[in-house]
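This protein record is not my work; I was only asked to verify it. Where you disagree with what is written, explain briefly why. This is what I was given:
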Amino acid sequence: MDKLLLKELCNLSGVSGREDEVRQWILARIDALATPHEVTVDAMGNVILHLIGRERPSKKLLLDVHIDEVGVIISHITEDGYLQFETVGGIDKQSLFGSRIRFAEHLGVIGGKAKHHCVGEEQDRLPDAQDMLIDIGVFNRASAEDKVQIGQVGTFAVAFEDYEDTGFFVGKAVDNRIGCALLLSLAQTQPPYDIWFSFTVQEEVGLRGAGVVSNVVRPDIAIAIDATTAQDTVGSSDETCVCRVGGGAVVSFADGATLYDSELYATIRQIADENGVRTQTKNRISGGNNAGAIQRSGVGVRMAAVSLPTRYIHSSRCVGKWEDVQAMENLLSLLMERLPR
């Protein structure tokens, strides 16, 4: 996969429910495909790409990714020009305080009560999200309203960086622009069988777009492609790390939203082993992805998940490794050939 593809995607703004910029960027890439295809956009803003293969499959396979990211939404503007906000999607408050936020062309910083004004327990803990404010560098409500408005969303203002000497990269929205980049890369080659790709909206606020897409496509088998938490950091053990960066593509047997098809799980791990693709699984049942909605759509769907192990997920600086991305791409390419038969 072209590394620039992920960089450009991560630097786009696409908070849940406001994914227009990402969707238009993806549609432009799809329009340039030489691969035979059909594309539709539904009322929610989901993009469905039908890649026309060399043969018709006996089973319909859907590969799904979500295009939205976590962020903030302005809920009130104070008389002093500060912005009160709510989070869109799950963001740990440790990731909020001091972060730079971008609202279109305007920047802000999340802050709160000054340390020397804190008393008692306030001195030893971060404020809760509802006690933080965004400072956009103005002194009154009227000046703030010239720049932003209530209901406007903001993203973390962090540029993607590639640590070429270590094989690591860091950026916002790796969850799930990594999935978007992988599907666009895989779409460059005509598959052996017809296959469906979906780029869905509003995953971070309740898996809302994926169920709609699945009811349209009606797949027999689906694979949710996403990023997943790697807690292989300071203080973790083999029992608590969930998965490890550098350990290969993550193939899940279960998470907080889905019990995956056991036969499909075993088949995917076997295909990976037979072809020398490094994989791992999650050692903790937690989190979730679009599989939770797709599996229960229509008359039911056989479900699998392939994910990128990612540190500091849902923060301004997600960390991953290129060798895991390559493992995911290799595995998905094999599955596109084997599973629709």
The mean pLDDT is 94. DSSP finds eight helices and 17 strands in the chain. The first strand starts at residue 37 and ends at 41.
